[in-house]
Design a protein that fits this description.
Number of strands: 2
Structural class: mainly alpha
Helix content: over 70%
Order of helices and strands: EHHHHHHHHHE
Strand content: 5-15%
Shape: globular
Oligomer: single chain
Distance between the termini: 33 Å
Number of helices: 9
Strand order of the largest sheet: 1-2
Length: about 260
């Protein structure tokens, strides 16, 4: 896995002419930075220019942080968020396919892990599609559709993380590569942290809606930030998984063209 090459398909410098090549680490970092910059920009703009609108809830009590859904439903925040998430979604589909090919090669003779790899691919795609849905249908436009997108995103994300940790637990047993050992440890810690803050966010959200206490929604919003940030960090572990790989577009030589 650690030799340079394409993520998919055979490649030969003698046969094919590379038109474009990019280290996978740049894709991993760039994809996460797009989503991170969009999130930070939207929250900061909401705090500085739309504080009252972004922190208001049906309880009409004081809150000090906007939820992500409230922030990305405002203008110009919604356009910044849609731009960043739209750009970052295509590489996410590519990364999901790259992981599936990697797992398929590792677990060729292990039926259970191969099936888990396929389910993991579906969850990765579902997570990305759910994120796109909740991004392009804001909570103040069609709340029910936005809510479905959010549920699909969270459910797919948690299942994807759990299966990924299970697959890498198997990989770790038969691998002495330091990067893969590091990747496994980070994945487990980030998944544990992510599910913990998901539970905290659900608790504060329910408490806010039940008792309408001042500041409780702020704790929910903060936990929501941590859920998203830990999700980004989990996906960032692709930096170690594909550190020496390249994404490459090649064209066949002249004598193979029709």
């Amino acid at each position: 896995m650690r030799n340079n090459g394409m993520l998919q398909g055979p490649y030969s410098l003698d046969r094919d002419k590379p038109l474009f090549r990019l280290p996978f680490t740049i894709i991993a970092v760039g994809t996460v930075c797009l989503a991170l910059s969009g999130l930070v920009s939207c929250i900061l703009i909401s705090l500085l220019y739309h504080f009252e609108e972004s922190t208001a809830t049906h309880c009409k009590v004081h809150n000090y942080l906007p939820s992500i859904s409230a922030s990305i439903s405002l203008t110009p925040e919604r356009y910044i968020w849609r731009f960043c998430i739209g750009l970052h979604s295509a590489p996410r589909f590519l990364v999901a396919a790259a992981y599936f090919n990697f797992y398929r090669g590792r677990f060729l003779n292990r039926c259970q892990e191969w099936l888990l790899s396929f389910v993991n691919l579906l969850c990765a795609q579902g997570e990305n599609l759910g994120l796109l849905l909740l991004t392009y249908v804001s909570s103040d436009e069609t709340y029910s559709v936005h809510k479905i997108g959010f549920i699909v995103f969270i459910a797919s994300s948690l299942i994807h993380m759990a299966i990924t940790c299970r697959l890498w637990q198997v990989i770790k047993k038969y691998s002495l590569i330091p990067e893969e050992q590091t990747s496994y440890r980070l994945k487990v810690r980030l998944f544990t942290f992510n599910i913990s803050v998901c539970i905290c966010a659900a608790y504060f959200y329910r408490r806010h809606n039940t008792y309408c206490e001042a500041g409780v929604y702020t704790f929910f919003a903060f936990c929501e930030y941590l859920v998203v940030l830990s999700n980004m960090a989990f996906h960032m572990t692709a930096y170690w998984d594909f550190g020496s790989k390249e994404v490459m577009i090649a064209t066949p030589p002249e004598d193979k063209r029709f």
